Amino acid sequence: MQVVCTQCRAKFEIQEKNLPDKPFSVNCPKCRFGMTVKPPPKAAPTIRGAPKSMQVNQDALTQLVALLSGQTTRNADGSTGSLASWQRRQTLLCLTDQAQIQQVLEKLDHNAYAPSVCEEAAKAIELMRDSQIDLVLLDPQFDSANQGGIAVLRHVNSLPPKYRRRTYLVLISPQVKTLDTYMAFLNGVNLTVNAADVETINLILERSIRDFNELYRCYNTAAGLNPF
């Protein structure tokens, strides 16, 4: 580090390895004038052997640690929430009635579920093929022109067992009773919800998924899998 005396303007060098972290006092070797010197800021640490483009950004590193620890989440609009989006259950809404879709979006706990709305069965199946969808809320009348309800139901139930087990299928209809395990079995779904009970969708899902995880607890433990 080069230092210039503020009294006689003489220049002299101080080895950086000898510099303290805080401002320090030093005497000019020529005129003995005393002055306070502020050390330059230390460079940010870099990955050994990495190019400059890979230098560690402290803010980004802090955000990454928070994301990995589940303390924050970054949403599509750049805002942050309480849980990372990839930790929330990816939820596909295959519903017909727009009012019901809006109601589900308003009532669903967005800290636990990351919902996406689909209007066509073909698109819904494409999404399930391209990415892991954890939860499907299905209206039997979905995309009725293309028998979309049946198409989505068949696709989910045709998945290999290890993938079918990780796809939670919920049938929402005014024709079914909420938490009717027998009706759920007959329809090849994990859960039935009466359309009138959407107001309490979070409590219904919590109870049903808790029972589901308990049912597969021994299997998940043996296979080293996390609960759904």
Automatic annotation (TrEMBL):
Residues 1-32 form the Zinc finger/thioredoxin putative domain. This is Zinc-ribbon domain-containing protein. It comes from Chloracidobacterium validum.
